[in-house]
Predict the 3D structure of the following.
Amino acid sequence: MYNFTFHRPTTVRQAAGLLAKNPDAKLLAGGHSLIPVMKQRLAQPSALIDLAKVEGLHGVELKGRSVVVGAMTTHSDVANSPIMQQALPGLAAVPAAIGDPQVRHMGTIGGSIANNDPNADYPAACLGLGATIITNKRKIAADDFFTGMFSTALEDGEIITKVSFPIAKKAAYEKFKHPASGFALVGVFVSKRGPEIRVAVTGAGANGVFRVKSFEEALKRRFAAKSLEGMTIPATGMNSDIHASAEYRAHLVGVLARRAVAKATA
């Protein structure tokens, strides 16, 4: 490790002010992605801005027909929230399957979304539910937020404060885990909210999380696993590595989509 300045603001305004004064500073949420790359000197920020004590960034609330989650709410708190379990059980199951207990008690929803790891679970949930990411400056639809691998629409000085998830009548997530890390080799989130159907995939695409429009169109006719029988997606543009080929990941998208729909309609 190397020398850096550590800041612990108590308001979003203070955190944003520190970011403005330190252009190469990094925000610290759970730290599971940032600290390892700092130890390897792949990132060398001059300052860390810890958001742990910032007011108003924690908790799960029911607001109208949406569930709003503070950006610093841990995976464990989201999974165990009575509000989430009752209003959106399909979403509550997502953080419950992230990593191990240590990760779930330290990692945060805002940190996961801002990092946009191509194998992370929350991006699929956000895109699969049509969530709105709320920052200190604006509101960003999930369809516009995730712009590529480890890339988002966040601008300099912009801090995620909350994530608003519309309540879906039916929703579920299925993933094929990496046996060591727990990350998704492929994960599929499906939802039905009125006439809107969404199918979002993580872990498979070389460009990060994406929607499968052909599956969505099939499920609009009938929201049932049988509607996806025999359907698949091209291997073009899929990740390929020592863990799974592009063809295998493409195959898993269809398998997991059917399982997710079956779970959502059970």
